[in-house]
Amino acid sequence: MKTYFPFLRGKQNELMAVRDLADRIAQRGTVVPIIEPVNGNATTGISIDRYIDVSMPFVFICNPLHGEFAGHAQRLFTQIISEELMEYDNWTPAFQVRRDSTRTELSAFLNRYIGYEVGIVYQGLPTTASVRTLLGDDAIGRHIFVKHYVPTEYINEIPESRRVMVSDPFNRQQRNADYPDRELFTDMNTLAGNPRRLDFGDFSIVGDHYTESGGPAYAVAVHHIHFQAEAGPLDISHFISDRTDTTVDTPGKTLEALEKLVEASGELNPNNTEACNEYREMASTGATRGLGYLKRLAIKHHLEIMLGAGIQL
Question: Would you say the pTM of this structure is higher than 0.85?
Fold first, then answer.
């Protein structure tokens, strides 16, 4: 069975969704989160401690492009990596390369993590030939290709066993009210959509979009991934609150969206995840716990699918 690599920015609810399932992720071995740390708060440290406690595998980006560590890789190393991870065996240090990445930067990364099997996250293909030569280093166990930033000719030079193909199937809209009821999410989890049986990933229900915080919610949307039928490709349904014209009463609008999800869940597979049970409880009690918690549950539900029957390769 192939491996699913969810690419998550290390904000609070993303980290906590993974933390909720850390035991199962460690036991199954078919899901390996890619984490781009974006802050050094207590949630980050507590979450990493939990991952280590249960021996959960994960990829940890050592040069983030977003958040407080962007451009401050040394501070990230001093504050988090050297304190938490250097004695841990089940993590993969990763370096993000772009078109302008230099040999000095990549060499420093490879030298720092001698003895580790490391990963390269391609946000572009470096234009300098000497950098591309370094990318052939035997220590690089995972070549993680993000979206369509690298030519196919180069990708095909990498052994298939070392490739991870990360797409962004979340069709982000400017306004929550604009999401359709239902659309295809991905078929990379199936043989038809992934005939070469490559390891794959995505940005879950967040998409490859980073902001420090969200704006006011005119409409509340719950993004819910599920199978098209009993199994096979994954669709995403969007449950939107009835009220979409003002920012008032976010809790009430959250309940409107949740009630639609709960009503539809009997026809959606799977509908027995821990996250689904929490949706039902929230709709029943009216205790919505905020928009961040909704995101946490949506990511958790997606991870539960992939930990179950979601990977059919």
Answer: yes
